[in-house]
Write a structure and sequence with these properties.
The structure holds 2 protein chains of 2 kinds. Chain A contains 15 helices and 2 strands. Chain A is mainly alpha-helical. Chain A has a domain at about 25-235. Chain B is mostly helical. Chain B has helices at about 5-40, 45-65, 70-95, 105-125, 160-180, 180-190, 195-200, 205-225, 240-250, 255-275, 280-295; strands at about 130, 140-145, 150-155, 230. The longest helix of chain B is centred in the first third of the chain and has 37 residues, at about 5-40. The model of chain B has no long low-confidence stretch (mean pLDDT about 85). Classes of the chains: A mainly alpha, B mainly alpha. Chains A and B meet through helix 5, helix 12 and helix 14 of A and helix 3, helix 4 and helix 11 of B.
Chain lengths: ~325, ~300
């Protein structure tokens, strides 16, 4: 019990923070950090733990954002109730994931990754061209429900905590073991009686749900979306992978660490370089892959394990080793 | 035959011609990808960005020294080859040698390379749209055909025609290179079975590096040929990377003749789709074909297993 309380202490500190620190810019940064931590963690479940690397998670983010947007636009729901969109965003993302999973899980490895990207690009094109519904490239504008950022802060904090606890719980359950087994060797998992299609889909659905909710949150918070923002492969799909890889794929803390670093670096570089600041993210991706392929948390864990087990543990990673 | 019918036929043939000519360029882009992905099993998401680099080389050659784009091909091919060699040797090969949780690290690495290339272009050359204003950019050759008492006038855009011809030449040269030379045979052997090739005394590491260089040179050539008829800007490569995948998968992995077929099919699909389906959705057509072919015809349209 005391251990659990220790875990709650920082959470309470984080929760009461906006009551004392009201600088809107700082809150904005923290909100983005938490949103990206949700996105990274969701990608991590499918890509890191289950080994199904997706290059098209923008599809779920975008459809979540657009579901929330269409709910406000089409039905004339007052902005304060626009939060219904959060649930709707998750649900539509799950429905989309059922379709994408049905199509793309016939393929493996890089071909799975590319086919999800292709479908995500198709959705991007639909969002641009289906003007009657999506308002096309002009996007959807809406006046956010709250003026004070602290409400958004608490909402996204609740989302991030739910997401973290949920994925932690899943990875401790039998389901999580199935996911790991599929990542390590899909054929071996299949031969042990694991229905790999069902469990890969389960992983995708959970991952898509949280990504969709995060997309809906993004719309409600920013008050504006267009297809080029929410369906962008480079700015959403690839950055979700970067956030996860930066912190450490297949680690629980990795995506959160990655999200904080990503938002910090991105703000500093944007202020310093303006357009073209993405060049540093490109360099960052290359450096991480070449020198820290298991991310910050992954590398640190490896080192701890090596220290603990001595020479015997050399070459074995705590996260399960190579594929 | 009524003039309306003749007009319809004229439009249709014109669209087919445009599709085939565009398909020639696509074939060149696809050939590069087919070598890299089909032969070496490397997924290169920086393919379009390599094309962008070649376009800028052509642009600066023309702007600064009045070098004709087709002449600049002589410089673009070796420069792009060396760039490809450097990327493979110093970035991709070391990553492929390390063991990580995610085997897709190599793919993500090329995303990083692509981001670096396009954003460097953005920083140094700005986001302005540029073009290579050659004198023959809009030169067109007309061909009048008499059909059922009506005259149909078909037009061929000169730069596209030249590009198509050069693309065919380069494709043929690649085919001869792969089938007749020692290096070509080594590339094919490495593609078939890397370990067996290594046991036969082939330096597979070197072959992989050379192949990536060749792929980069081919897509570079496509960029140069595209420069006179297209505008260029730092992000131009972005839509061409998926196109390259679509072509490669259509043609079958590592199948040189297949890449040409895939290029023509995609060119025709886009051209026909933009006229008869919808301009906005023409790119979606390619993606849908891509996913369908991956699932139902994993060996490509020609149906042969890889060479």
């Amino acid at each position: 019990m005391p251990k659990k309380l220790l875990f709650l202490l920082p959470l309470v500190l984080v929760a009461v923070l906006p009551l004392f620190w009201t600088n809107p810019y700082v809150l904005h940064m923290l909100i983005l950090c938490m949103m990206w931590s949700v996105l990274g963690q969701s990608w991590n479940l499918l890509g890191g733990y289950t080994g199904q690397v997706s290059f098209g998670h923008a599809a779920f983010f975008g459809i979540g954002a657009y579901s929330a947007a269409l709910l406000v636009n089409g039905q004339g729901i007052p902005p304060a109730r626009a939060w219904l969109g959060l649930g709707l965003g998750g649900v539509t993302a799950v429905l989309l994931a059922v379709f994408i999973g049905w199509v793309c899980f016939r393929l493996r490895g890089p071909y799975f990754a590319l086919s999800v990207m292709a479908l995500s690009e198709v959705l991007h094109l639909i969002a641009i061209n289906w003007k009657d519904v999506t308002n096309g490239a002009e996007g959807v504008l809406f006046i956010p429900a709250f003026n004070d950022k602290k409400y958004y802060y608490w909402i996204v904090l609740a989302l991030a905590v739910t997401n973290f606890v949920c994925i932690k719980y899943v990875m401790k359950s039998k389901l999580g073991l199935y996911f790991l087994a599929i990542r390590e060797d899909q054929d071996a998992a299949e031969s042990l009686g694991i229905n790999t299609t069902v469990y890969k889909l389960a992983s995708l659905l959970i991952s898509a749900f949280f990504t969709g909710v995060a997309g809906a949150f993004y719309f409600n918070y920013m008050g504006f979306i267009d297809p080029g923002i929410v369906f962008d492969t480079a700015k959403i799909s690839v950055m979700m992978i970067l956030v996860t890889m930066l912190g450490g794929a297949a680690t629980l803390a990795g995506p959160a660490v990655g999200a904080v670093l990503y938002i910090l670096v991105s703000e500093i570089l944007r202020a310093w370089l303006g357009q073209g600041h993405l060049v540093f993210f490109g360099v960052l991706i290359i450096v991480i892959i070449l020198f820290f392929p298991n991310g910050i948390v992954g590398t640190w864990k490896d080192r701890q394990a090596r220290k603990a087990k001595g020479a015997a543990a050399a070459g074995v990673t705590t996260t399960g080793g190579g594929a | 035959m009524s003039p309306q019918v003749a007009g319809q036929i004229e439009l249709f043939l014109q669209v087919v011609i445009a599709g085939v000519l565009l398909g020639g360029l696509y074939a060149l882009i696809g050939l590069g990808m087919s070598l890299i992905m089909g032969v070496m099993r490397i997924i290169n998401l920086a393919h379009g960005e390599l094309m962008m680099v070649a376009m800028y080389i052509t642009f600066w050659g023309f702007t600064l020294w009045k070098v004709d784009p087709y002449v600049s091909l002589l410089a673009v091919l070796p420069v792009m080859f060396l760039l490809g060699v450097a990327i493979q040797k110093f970035l991709i090969s070391p990553v492929m040698a390390t063991d990580t949780i995610l085997p897709e690290n190599q793919v993500l690495l090329t995303v990083g390379v692509g981001m670096v290339l396009s954003n460097l272009a953005l920083i140094f050359f700005s986001a302005n749209y540029r073009s290579v204003p050659v004198s023959y950019a809009s030169k067109t050759i007309y061909w009048d055909v008499a059909v059922g008492g009506q005259t149909i006038s078909l037009s061929f855009n000169f730069p596209f025609l030249v590009a198509f011809g050069i693309a065919l030449l380069l494709g043929g040269a690649l085919f001869l290179f792969l089938s007749r030379t020692d290096t070509g045979r080594m590339i094919r052997a490495t593609a078939q079975d890397k370990r067996a090739a290594a046991l036969m005394g082939i330096n597979t590491e070197r072959i992989t590096v050379i192949t990536f260089g060749l792929g980069a040179a081919l897509v570079g050539a496509a960029g140069t040929l595209l420069a006179p008829v297209y505008y260029l800007y730092p992000q131009i490569g972005h839509p061409f990377t998926p196109k390259a995948f679509i072509i490669t998968v259509l043609g079958g992995m590592g199948n040189v003749a297949g890449a040409v077929v895939g290029g023509l099919v995609l060119g025709l699909a886009e051209s026909l789709g933009s006229v008869y389906v919808s301009l906005g959705y023409k790119d979606a057509l390619g993606f849908v074909i891509f996913v369908l072919v991956l699932i139902f015809m994993p060996n490509g349209l020609l149906g042969k297993s890889k060479a």
